[in-house]
Design brief:
Blueprint (H helix, E strand, L loop, with lengths): L4 H4 L9 H5 L11 E4 L5 H8 L9 E4 L20 E8 L6 H16 L1 E2 L2 E2 L1 E3 L3 E4 L2 E14 L17 H4 L10 E12 L18 H5 L5 H21 L1 H11 L6 E6 L2 E11 L3 E6 L4 E4 L4 E7 L1
Parallel strand pairs: 1-2
Antiparallel strand pairs: 2-3, 3-9, 4-5, 6-7, 7-8, 8-9, 10-11, 10-14, 11-12, 12-13
Length: 305
């Protein structure tokens, strides 16, 4: 459903407006094309449809509300209407490894939030951003193998807001096309939630920018900062991956801490001694030896000093 900004502007002071987000946005790759939906099932799914055209690299899909938002390992992403930044970024031309891309997105989101209420946004590997020990943002990086239209192919690069490509172009996809691996970076940042906005089981582990800053954030400005940050850190990663790794180390809440990880159903416990941009988190195991764990197959069970 397209964003009816005239109907709901009075109810939402920081309504996400593509023109306002793009105004004075100085990016090289991210945000050249921006879509805003009033409500949709999942911005990642919409972004994946637009990823079928190479011209849409860097396109961003925002939504005021998601009815089927998701996180890692099948978890649901819960957010009230107009409470958050909910967006997905199309990355077609990607030369970074999966692990480095994941780290880059985490650094970019943490830098977007910055220092709030005296607390610095930190990274909890693999995809959580924390404020004052609570989760304030999450990242879902998905990859898909899709037939991609070349830039010169006569396929609409951008369809009207609210109309999915599968509805307008069904059965008309040029064939054959070479399949390419594309990435969708889904990002959710809690902005306006109060403590009681979260379910009882999440109130002690989740937070929002407003709750920590004791003020009201501007989601349009935050969206602009996010796109600028992702753009800058993707470029930094392409030019010098060590810059991303160094910043990740500075922002990590797990480095030098004892962790228990679940990898393919098995538990591993040890001290986190670093990160590898190709192979993932590095653990010095209690049982002896050093092992690396990739983000795709690993989750964090618990951590301690």
């Amino acid at each position: 459903m397209p964003n009816n900004k005239f109907k709901i502007a009075n109810q939402i002071p920081d309504l996400l407006d593509p023109d306002k987000i793009k105004a004075n946005l100085k990016t090289n790759r991210i945000g050249g094309k921006i879509l805003v939906y009033d409500s949709t099932s999942s911005t990642n799914d919409i972004a994946a449809e637009y990823a079928r055209n190479r011209q849409n690299d860097g396109l961003v899909v925002f939504a005021e509300e998601q009815t089927a938002g998701r996180g890692r390992t099948g978890n649901k992403w819960l957010s009230g209407r107009a409470d958050s930044i909910l967006c997905s970024i199309v990355l077609i031309e990607n030369k970074l490894s999966d692990e480095l891309l994941s780290l880059t997105c985490a650094v970019a989101v943490a830098e977007t939030i910055g220092t709030t209420g005296g607390c610095r946004a930190k990274i909890k590997w693999p995809n959580d951003i924390m404020l004052n020990g609570k989760k304030v943002a999450g990242i879902l990086l998905e990859s898909r193998s899709l037939p991609i239209a070349d830039c010169g192919e006569a396929v609409p690069a951008l369809r009207p807001v609210g109309i999915l490509p599968t509805e307008t172009n069904k059965g008309k996809m040029p064939s054959p096309r070479r399949k390419s691996k594309i990435y969708i970076a889904g990002i959710g940042i809690n902005c306006h939630q109060k403590k009681e906005s979260f379910p009882d089981e999440l109130q002690q582990i989740a937070t929002s920018i407003d709750a920590e800053s004791h003020s009201i954030s501007d989601r349009v400005l935050l969206a602009k900062r996010l796109l600028s940050s992702v753009d800058q850190w993707l470029q930094a990663a392409a030019n010098n991956s060590e810059k991303v790794i160094d910043r990740w180390r500075e922002l990590s809440i797990q480095l030098s801490h004892r962790l228990t990880l679940i990898f393919n159903g098995a538990k591993f416990t040890g001290h986190c001694i670093g990160i590898d941009p190709e192979k993932g988190l590095i653990l010095k195991l209690d049982t002896g030896g050093i092992r690396m764990f990739d983000a795709v197959h690993t989750s964090v069970a618990k951590s301690s000093a």
